[in-house]
Prior knowledge:
By secondary structure, this protein is an alpha+beta fold. It folds into three domains: 162 residues, Immunoglobulin-like; 249 residues, Orthogonal Bundle (Neutral Protease, domain 2); 78 residues, Roll (Pdz3 Domain). It is 31% helix and 27% strand. The protein has 18 helices and 28 strands. β13 and β14 form a beta hairpin. α5 packs parallel to α7, α9 packs across α11 and α12 packs across α13. The longest helix has 19 residues. 43% of the residues are buried. The N terminus is likely disordered.
Amino acid sequence: MLAVLLALVAQDSAPQLSFRLTVPNDRSAYLVELQIIHPPNPSRLVIPAWAPGAYVLMNSGENITGFEASSADARLAVRRDSPNSWVIDTRGKPSITVRYAAGLRDSVAWRRPNNRWFLRTTSGMVDGPRTFMYLDGWKQLPARVAFQLPPRWRIATGLAPATSDSTTYTAPNYDVFIDSPMLLGHFLSYPFTAAGTPHRAVVDLAGGRASAPTAFVNMLRRISTTAIDIFGAAPYQDYTYIFVGGRGGGLEHANSTTIGVKTEILARNPRGAQTVSAHEFFHAWNVKRIRPIELGPFDYEHEVRTVNLWWSEGVTDYYADVILARAGLNSPADFARRLATSIENLQGDPAHLMIAPERSSSTTWDAPAVNQGVTISYYLQGELLGFLLDLAIRDSTDNAKSLDDVMRYLLEHYAGAHGFTRDQLLTAVRSATGCDFAEFWRLHVSGVTEIPWNNYLQAAGWRVAFTTEPAVDARIGSLPPAVQGGRWRAVAAPGSAALSAGLRTGDDLVRINGREIIDGTDVTAAVRPLRPGASVVVEVVHDDQPRTIRFRASRYQRLRARLRDLPAQTAKMGRIRAGLTRGGATR
């Protein structure tokens, strides 16, 4: 009885948090008010330095202005103990109110639509990690948020409504609270059911309409149903796809995703966002439930490293290929072509023999200098490793087991409070399939040994045919900013004309041939039209100094890859190939 009474007393004295978010008429920032009942003294409030799923620091504190704290009868003293945290002397008050504004200082960028964080005349996206603070030591407290919005604005979010009042929502803890982005304003809404579970797509095209909404919704329904079928059930009660016409990108959340897509793509092609939709939706399992041990409970103040992003992101890329094929949105030939393109991209990059997938995962926070000035995508590495594992498992078990069994095993064993370690992931593959891949891990996951492609591909009756063809050497790739909101960075391919002219991987991109570089799509748009002999002018910032790099686009021999059928096809090969693109595992 005493223990129960003490628990009740502790519960009564625990802090209680209520947020209010206001969209002002000038759209200058989100105005946030936080009321804390029973605040600890001192109370330390923190804005996260990074967002789960986006492994880059954000300098969030720079976007916070006007921070102040008060009680019913007085202003309270505040000191800033880090760039992202504020300490309040509550003076033993029973309740305090904190107010601040959250928004980008660059007004042009702040009004530019994207899939993460913006505010303009007709709509806005609320990015939880850059908008809402947590009370240090109390992230497990429930949170409540009310919205004060312009007339006729609506709200779309994965959060649960508090009551029938459509402007107030609740979350069981801070992690869930900021993992639920909020689209505000005027948008289209398309509800649908997949595998008996409510889903919806909300689309903000700034007044425009999506082309062929029936086909658009059907695409999402087929993706959702196919992914759910892999696991047998949805891990959520409802799911919200949030699409914003503007810049590209996507970010996964437990029961929602935000996807940026060029307005003209979604307006003209109802399936223009199918690949990113399949990828982000599969994250509802792989990452949001099945996660590396380091990715939760979250340390929001420091970078969090794991060697397993190749699995969390790259294998998710592979399942995007799988889902689109099994859903009938891509043909089996499309499936083969997509993977062949990935093979040529990997093999054509010398970095694949320099940076192992586990290292590219753990160093994603770092400048390319930590890897001798080169970089490679763990998305690409993981997509192909997932493909090879699926082939090898099916081959070893005569198609009785597959990578699907591994995913289901991981969901059963690592979807709770405890994520998986590197060794537990390897053990899970063996436990789910009976196949030991320790040597595979040593050579191709932890190591950089060349992959013997045909040894794996023959299981499905394929071989890879490599050729070369002349191509324009205006090779300039791109990396996301080192800090959220910063400039996109250059990737200078080894042996490229850009590298010879002085461009270095990691240089901050400013302009290419006069085109301002806002994100990777601008890089592609700037170099795609170039022809041999064309002049290329790249403006960058290198070691904090502006530089201009000039060269002429030349030619180089580009590697190409195609998956070809083996001349002698067996019934087993046919079963394995069908299993990849149709699902199931049968003898």
